[in-house]
Amino acid sequence: MKINQADLIPILIVPALMLIGFLAIGSLSTWLTLTIAGLAMGMIIYTIASGLTVVFGLMDVLNFGHGVFITLGAYLAVSIFAGMHGFLLSPDILRNLLAIGAAIALAVVGTAIAGAIFERLLVKPVYGDHLMQILVTMGGLIVGEELIKVVWGVEQVNVPIPAFLKGVFAYGDFAVEKFRVYAFAVGLIAFLGQMYVFSQTKTGLLIRASVHDREMVEALGYGVRRLFVGTFIAGCALAGLGGVMWGMYQQTLVPQIGSQMTVLIFIVVIIGGLGSTWGALLGSILVGIVANYAGFLAPTFALFSNIAIMTAVLLWRPQGLYGAAAR
Amino acid sequence: MIPWSRLLSNDLPRSRILAVFLIALMLALIVGPFGFTGAKSLSICVKILIFAVLAASFDLLLGYTGIVSFAHTVFFGIGAYGVSIAIVHMGANWSAVAIGTLAALLLSVVLAFLIGLFSLRVKAIFFSMITLALASAAQTLAVQLSSVTGGEDGIIFRLPPVLMPSFRLFDERVFGIFVDGRVIAYYLILVAVALMLLAILRIVNSPFGRVLLAIRDNEFRAEAIGYPVVRFRIISSVIAAVFACLCGALLSIWLRYAGPDAALSFEIMLDILIIVIIGGVGTIYGAVVGSAVFLFAQGYLQEWLKLAGAKLAGIPLLEQLLSPDRWMLWLGVFFILGVYYLPSGLVGMLRGTVAATAPIQSRQRRRLAFADRLLGRNK
Question: CB-CB: which of B277, B317, B336 is closest to A143?
Answer without folding.
Answer: B336
